[in-house]
């Protein structure tokens, strides 16, 4: 997992010396849905502090007397499988197969292309489904809640400025270059 600073000029954002390797998800296999959030904890904690109250640097090149730095996580960009897990959403074979809209297999199924009928899900809905999942007291109850909504908990919901429904982006170019789609 790497973080790119969007305040830098575009041609400098993706140079190795300007990117922050924020974590590595260990293999050999992909972590299950419920284990992905754990990998995000450190990143989210970091962004929480940088968002409020911000981090004060006592001296920088441009600010010899120090400056307050505030950061926000704007987008999470990854492939489809990682996007589903990072957003706390079920896999694409689930009844609720989409993390962006409220389409379900039974209503406007996966082959339906009449996009006028698709209704985008909201961050509030993600919050509500996630809260319901967290309030479940047994594994069976959690599984049942997850089946009903297709949403479990994601650490990203702890960021007050982050909209899970809008800001987790599937990196289509990455998928095309690697021949995954
Ligand atoms: Zn959709």
Structural description of this entry:
The strands form three sheets. A two-stranded antiparallel sheet has the order 1-2. Helix 4 (123-135) runs antiparallel to helix 5. It contains seven helices and six strands; from the N terminus they run βαβαβββααααβα. The chain has helices at 10-13, 33-51, 80-86, 123-135, 139-149, 164-167, 172-177, and strands at residues 2-3, 20-21, 55-57, 67-69, 76-78, 168-170. The model has no long low-confidence stretch (mean pLDDT 90). With 181 residues, it is α+β, with helices and mostly antiparallel strands. It starts with a strand and ends with a helix. Bound molecules: zinc ion (ZN). Zinc ion (ZN) binds next to loops.
Brief write-up:
This protein has 181 residues and is of the alpha+beta class. It is built from seven helices and six strands; from the N terminus they run βαβαβββααααβα.
What's the layout of helices and strands?
Blueprint: E1 2-3, H1 10-13, E2 20-21, H2 33-51, E3 55-57, E4 67-69, E5 76-78, H3 80-86, H4 123-135, H5 139-149, H6 164-167, E6 168-170, H7 172-177
Parallel strand pairs: 5-6
Antiparallel strand pairs: 1-2, 3-4
This protein binds zinc ion.
């Amino acid at each position: 997992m790497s973080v790119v600073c969007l305040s830098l000029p575009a041609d400098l954002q993706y140079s190795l010396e300007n990117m922050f390797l924020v974590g590595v998800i260990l293999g050999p296999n992909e972590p299950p849905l419920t284990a992905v959030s754990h990998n995000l904890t450190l990143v989210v904690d970091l962004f929480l502090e940088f968002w409020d109250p911000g981090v004060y640097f006592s001296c920088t090149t441009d600010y010899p007397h120090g400056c307050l730095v505030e950061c926000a996580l704007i987008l999470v960009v990854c492939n489809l499988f990682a996007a589903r897990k990072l957003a706390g959403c079920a896999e694409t074979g689930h009844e609720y197969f989409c993390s962006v809209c409220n389409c379900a297999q039974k209503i406007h199924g996966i082959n339906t292309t009449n996009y006028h009928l698709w209704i985008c899900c909201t961050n509030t809905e993600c919050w509500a489904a996630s809260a319901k999942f967290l309030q479940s007291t047994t594994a069976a109850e959690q599984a049942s809640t997850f089946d009903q909504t297709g949403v479990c908990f994601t650490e990203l919901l702890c960021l007050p400025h982050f909209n899970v429904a809008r800001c987790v982006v599937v990196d289509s170019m990455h998928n095309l270059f690697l021949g995954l789609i």
